[in-house]
Write a structure and sequence with these properties.
With about 350 residues, the protein is α+β, with helices and mostly antiparallel strands. It folds into 2 domains: about 170 residues, Jelly Rolls, CATH 2.60.120; about 130 residues, no CATH class. The protein has 5 helices and 17 strands. A hairpin with a 4-residue loop joins strand 10 and strand 11. The longest helix has about 50 residues.
């Protein structure tokens, strides 16, 4: 199913989200090496202590980069060669940011648990937090690892959830359920070594890797397709309520109009806005998959086989890649705005 939300609605809502302070800023409390902040409006600058990272902003660290963020009793340590961002969504009538690790590794320490902790996601999983300290790795091929030091973390992917306790970890491939839970010695796994293994796995079997990302992309598109008819229904009700509100104001006066707005129009407006927010959440997640995983895989193989473009392994990979790209362009791109690109 191809989904196309009217772009003027999406842009208007995007601007509304950008100026609505439902999220809590994350403050840069430490930085070293190559560490930069990319603002949602397109600006890039070198991070310094005291800077804020807000909804829609991204953090990028180089080979020698490192950054620590402090946010509402949560400390986020962003390691070298990492891309991290905050994507908003609504769940259970509550707007929140999703801590999104696109590539690299980061650790999270919760000083206070309230039961309303923002989830953490990668290109292959989403983790519900009930733990006080854990790490997440996001690899070249979209695979991820969650490692728990203390507390408990629930990892969801491929329609299955597993709960990790202290000194436990799990690896998740895109579009698949979590793998077998394993014990973690001293709570650490070497990211560079693990990511090197993920790179080698991709080179050995690029078709399998591309099929996994295709499954993950299909998941995002399915979520958008489920939300879109709900959006249309609520938008129709909202438009009708706004017209009725005008009639009430003209026939019954401003006080009756205010009451109708409070009781009917305003709740419908919030509900419709939340649906659009979640459509964009899945669209931005799909964009991250396309940009940081699919794009890197394609460029890597293209350069490897530049003198042998007819290689069977490369051609099979490219077939799946182009099929996934076509789905992305038809069903996801219409949900994006210029600021996303």
């Amino acid at each position: 199913m191809i989904i196309k939300v009217r772009i003027e609605i999406v842009i208007g809502f995007f601007l509304l989200v950008s100026t609505t302070a439902f999220s809590i800023p994350s403050e840069v409390v430490y930085t070293e090496g190559d560490a930069n902040i990319h603002k949602r409006n397109g600006g890039d600058y070198e991070a310094v202590i005291g800077d804020e990272v807000n909804t829609g902003d991204s953090v990028k660290t180089g080979a020698d980069g490192y950054m620590e963020l402090d946010r509402d009793d949560v400390t986020i340590k962003i390691n070298p060669d990492t891309v991290f961002t905050l994507i908003p969504r609504e769940e259970d009538s509550r707007k929140t940011d999703v801590f999104t690790l696109l590539l690299g590794s980061a650790s999270f320490r919760y000083n206070v648990l309230t039961g309303r902790e923002p989830p953490v996601q990668t290109s292959s999983l989403i983790a519900g937090v009930r733990g006080t300290e854990f790490s997440v790795l996001a690899g070249f091929d979209g695979s991820s690892v969650v490692l728990v030091k203390s507390g408990e973390v629930t990892v969801n992917s491929g329609g299955k959830a597993v709960s990790l306790k202290p000194q436990e970890g799990v690896q998740v491939n895109p579009g698949e359920p979590p793998g077998e839970i394993f014990k973690v010695l001293k709570g650490k796994v070497d990211y560079r070594k693990w990511n090197g293994e993920r790179f080698k796995s991709f080179i050995d079997n690029p078709v399998q890797a591309s099929e996994r990302t295709e499954k993950r992309m299909a998941f995002y598109i399915k979520k958008i397709s489920e939300l879109y008819p709900v959006y249309l229904k609520n938008k129709k009700q909202l438009d009708s309520a706004r017209e009725k509100n005008k009639t009430i104001k003209a026939e019954q006066g401003i006080e009756a109009s205010k009451k109708y707005f409070k009781d009917i129009t305003a709740p419908l407006s919030v509900k419709t806005s939340n649906i659009v927010l979640n459509i964009r959440y899945y669209a931005l997640s799909a964009l991250s998959l396309r940009r940081y995983i699919m794009g890197r895989m394609y460029l890597t193989l293209k350069s490897m086989y530049i003198t042998n473009p007819g290689n069977n392994k490369y051609m099979e990979f490219k077939k799946v890649f182009m099929r996934t790209l076509k789905l992305f362009e038809k069903s996801v791109v219409p949900q994006l705005v210029e600021a996303d690109i």
